[in-house]
Design brief:
Blueprint (H helix, E strand, L loop, with lengths): L3 H31 L8 H18 L5 H6 L1 H21 L6 H41 L1
Helix pairs in contact: 1-2, 2-4, 2-5, 4-5
């Protein structure tokens, strides 16, 4: 079992790596749209997908706060489904040429997203268990 300190370090590390990939690729996309300084490439969109997946793996290690418990597990699940699955669909839609490197990156992203789906389920179960414990404590008082 991991300690809380290890979970916080993993959370911050994976979130930082993911955000650097995500925003770095986003800046490259903006530069290619506005000027000819960088060549246009579909790898920028796949790098954004990769960074997004890494961010959400880091999100699994984030400790559950009391405020999140007040909102309940339904709010957690709905928000994660909307942000995690629907937002990247626009990035996939922008890919024009499915070359070998793009397909390889998409395959890596697909594996990350499958792992993230499993981790969402595990965290959802943790939310349900903690919220039911919270409700039981309130009933006993």
């Amino acid at each position: 079992m991991m300690t809380e300190k290890t979970k916080k370090i993993l959370y911050r590390t994976l979130l930082t790596i993911g955000l650097v990939l995500l925003f770095g690729a986003f800046i490259c996309v903006l530069i290619t749209d506005w000027s000819d300084a960088l060549p246009k490439s579909d790898l920028y969109f796949t790098t954004m997908l990769l960074g997004w997946g890494i961010c959400w793996i880091g999100n699994y290690f984030q400790p559950i706060s009391a405020k999140e418990l007040e909102n309940g597990p339904g709010c957690f699940l709905t928000l994660n489904i909307l942000l995690f699955y629907l937002l990247p669909m626009g990035w996939i839609h922008n890919i024009e040429h499915f070359t070998t490197p793009v397909v390889i990156m998409l395959a890596i992203c697909a594996v990350l997203y499958i792992v993230n789906s499993f981790l969402f389920y595990k965290k959802y179960q943790q939310f349900k268990a903690l919220s039911s414990e919270d409700e039981d404590e309130k009933k006993q008082e």
